[in-house]
Amino acid sequence: MPPRPYRPLVASLLALLPGLIFLPAPSSAVETVTPPPAVVRTRLAVAPLPYTGEVVRIDEVDYPVPRPWTGNMVRVPEDTVPSLQMIPQELTLNRTEIYLRNEAIEPLRAMSAAAAEAGVQLLVDSGYRSARYQRVIFRQFLEKGQRFENIARYVAPPGYSEHALGTVVDFHPSGRGFAASDAYRWLKQHAGAYGFHETLPRHNRHHFPWEPWHWKFQAVTADKLPQLAPHTVKRRPAPLAALPAPAVTRPTFQAASAEALINHR
Hints:
The chain is of the alpha+beta class. It has one domain: Muramoyl-pentapeptide Carboxypeptidase, domain 2 (2-Layer Sandwich). The strands form three sheets. A four-stranded antiparallel sheet has the order 5-6-8-7, with helices on one face.
């Protein structure tokens, strides 16, 4: 009787059967897989930014000072408040009572007169502001629901504003549009001769917000300035009822009165 054709196939399968019995069982679908050690080390290498320790306290709450303000607190001379005098009101927006140190008054008058001869009007809309007054500004924004770090993107935190020196003025209009004005172009060319300098220029090394309207007086010799007629300076006018509230967007700060500002030290 001839052999059947399927018998070799059956014999081959029977020979493989012992190996199939001892194969390892497949892994469970729910088995936990441990990531490779290199991946674990990479995740643990990410550390939080170091804490600088600089805070601003407003209403018993400490707010961490964000960059770029950290490490740039302004040191205010002790004689700043006694040295404040009111800027002639014809040089301020809406004849607002705004104050500077006395040594900056005459250079400001001379610079404004020179600008006027060139057909450019320089109007000051902010001057001396104490650290306490800056807290008032921040408190108003915080009460509107804005976050401290967002406010600090446009306004210097209390203790970090050059306005507390009493030698800084903001010219109207205190906004980005000032960079396109005739006043800004004139100041860029001539303000240095009167001791005024743009201390928050575009692309500054500290990465502070650009404020083309912000100009700081740094003393120059008196004989370089034209002699102007003397003027009477009011020192402590009657206080107004309340401090003005800044705008919701980038505010234009105006001094209510010398007494209001001095009381908000």
